[in-house]
Amino acid sequence: MTSRRIRLWLAAGLFVATAPLLAIGALTAWDSRGADKLVPECRGPRATDFSCLDRRYRALVRAAGVQAALADLRRQSQRSQAVRVTCHQLAHTIGRAAAERSPDPAAPFAQGDSSCEAGYYHGVVQAVAAKLGAQAFLDGLESTCASVRSGAARRLYVECVHGLGHGVMSVLGNRLYAALPACDRLPVRQDQHRCQSGVFMENIASDHGLTHSGTRYQSEDRPLYPCTDVATRYKWECYPQQATYAVRRLGDDYPSVFALCAGVKAPNDRRCYQGLGAAAADESTTDSLMLAGQIAEVAQLCRLGADREAVSNCIVGGVRGFSFYVGAASADRFCHFLEPALEHGCLREGKRYRRKLRLRPAAVEGAP
Q1: Is the full-model pTM beyond 0.70?
Q2: Three-class SS string for 297-332?
Q3: Any idea where the domains of the chain sit in the sequence?
Q4: What does the alpha-carbon distance between residue 275 and residue 172 come to, in Å, rounded to a whole number?
Q5: Is-contact 60 27, C-beta < 8 A?
Q6: Are 89 and 131 in contact (CB under 8 A)?
Q7: Mean pLDDT of the chain
Q8: Are 37 and 31 in contact (CB under 8 A)?
Q9: Which residue has the higher pLDDT, 26 or 208?
Q10: φ, ψ for residue 113 (rounded to 5)?
Q11: What pLDDT, on a 0 to 100 scale, did the predictor assign at position 214?
């Protein structure tokens, strides 16, 4: 979701490798029986047009199904920077298209996977919210993910509750200060936090022009707003999300974002640093780098922190990102790459995080 740089910060200096924008064809007829089955493939000036890409993946779900659409998205995100930088929101699109006729997330959840930061699941919940309407969705917020929780992997339930935040923002017209109290309706505090993180992620997506309505809750001059202004109980989930916005707004100037995080009052400064590590891991895993390059990039970016607290918390965000999207073995390799003073804490946090979410030892299915 950030405007990603294709860079490796290496010890010897800054290496820049710019990925080309690749054309994806013209117009493909997936089913010649009707014009409604035509799937636009965006190229030329339209290769960076989100509205064209959005239409493409909606049509592809109708023409070939969810798995075909997600597989195409993964494939194209490896070939095209334009698709790669909007991969999460395009996965939202596929999820919304899959669930447009479903009042419950369980069935469409079973069709999808965690491609592109699990955006598919968030889009499913948004579609359920749109179908129910604002009042019914908010009144039934607590029960929306119940069908996913029963018998599902813990990770899918977590994504569903996070998706509630996206859904709340959607039905409330991206009114952040109305959406956050809606998350307080959930009876479990941990679920309130997951919902809040979805609200703040949707706020960032809205600022990027990747939703159908914009946001009033971003500031070019204050990259960490609205975290600076929201109630204290919401700051914990705001800062990790907002750090990714700050990276984009400041042109991937990680030292400057580290400095911004250093000005945040404890304990939320740690969360800001963790957001930087997560942003670095996210960027590395979607930049088509080999694993060794991903590990080196995240480690070097985290070392840009000014002190041990900044570096170690950035590493926490990094190992969580590797654990979720690449898998335990790769996350452990990231930790082993670090100096001994950081390695032990990194391994401990990776194991704790995977145990908490009940992640499989292997890579998450469908992750980029």
Answers
A1: yes
A2: HHHHHHCCCCCHHHHHHHHHHHHHHHHHHCCHHHHH
A3: 239-355
A4: 26
A5: no
A6: no
A7: 84
A8: yes
A9: 208
A10: -150, -175
A11: 62
What lies within 8 Å, CB to CB, of 164 at 6+ separation is 125, 141, 144, 145, 183, 186, 194, 195, 198
Residue with tokens 């929306």: 144
Per-residue pLDDT reduced to its tens digit, 267-291: 999 999 999 999 999 888 766 568 8
Q: Pick the closest to residue 276 from 246, 306, 308 (CA basis).
A: 246
Q: Which of the four pLDDT bands, split at 50, 70 and 90, describes residue 324?
A: confident
| Gap between the Cα atoms of 108 and 103, Å rounded | 10
Q: How far apart are CA 290 and CA 292, in angstroms?
A: 6
Provide the total of helices (H) and of strands (E) in the chain, helices listed first: 18, 4
From CA 320, how far away is CA 302, in angstroms rounded? Answer: 14
| Burial state string for 208-218 with b = 16 or more CB within 10 A and e = fewer than 16 | bebbeeebebb
Q: Average pLDDT of 248-263?
A: 95
- State the DSSP code for 105: S
50 Cβ neighbours under 8 A, 6+ residues apart: 86, 89, 209, 210
How far apart are alpha carbons 330 and 265 in whole angstroms?
33
At 87, the amino acid letter reads: C
Q: How far apart are CA 127 and CA 95, in angstroms?
A: 8
Enter the tokens of residue 70: 């997600």
Which helix (H) or strand (E) is 27 found in, with range? strand 27-29
Classify residue 34 by burial, with Cβ atoms within 10 Å: 0-12, 13-18, 19+.
Answer: exposed
